[in-house]
Amino acid sequence: MATLHLEIVTPEALVYQEEVQEVVVPGVEGELGILPQHVALITQILPGELRIQQRGGKELRLAVGEGFLEVRPDRVSVLTDMAITEADIDEKAAQEAVARAEQEMRDQSLSHEELATVQAALQKSLAKLRVKRRSHH
Fold first, then answer.
1. Are 73 and 109 in the same domain?
2. Segment 23-32, tens digit of pLDDT
3. Is the pTM of this model over 0.90?
């Protein structure tokens, strides 16, 4: 079966690098599935769940933040500000972060920039919770 090379990179590290069968990313217009020989594409990704269909049929799920996706027929590059595997997500800490962000958003004195920062943090925390809780079902 044909594969494609997937790289997931954050500002801190190369998080993932493998040959995979498929990757599904949270795009600006919904989920985007990438298979080998996909047409070239560059698009923005949003906080959410990234799913990887590894060789051998095993699926890996990561919570990702905002970033960009570059697709070439044999290679996919994900550049994001966050990429965490479900095993590395602390559910309690993510719940606390959601509660903090929701409380901060009630503060009417926040500037537009501060509000955008809080909203971005909220979206990342919600992405972590979705990935972690999906593994419970």
1. no
2. 999 999 899 9
3. no
Task: Compute the half-sphere exposure of residue 18: CA atoms within 13 Å on the CB side of its CA.
Answer: 14
Domain containing residue 102: 89-134
Distance in angstroms (rounded) separating the CA atoms of residues 76 and 72: 6
d(CA 61, CA 89): 11
Same domain, 64 and 10: yes
> What is the per-residue DSSP string for 113-134?
HHHHHHHHHHHHHHHHHHHHHH
27 sits in which H/E element:
strand 14-27
Residue where the block lists tokens 């919770």:
129
Please report, for the domain that includes residue 8, its CATH number: 2.60.15.10
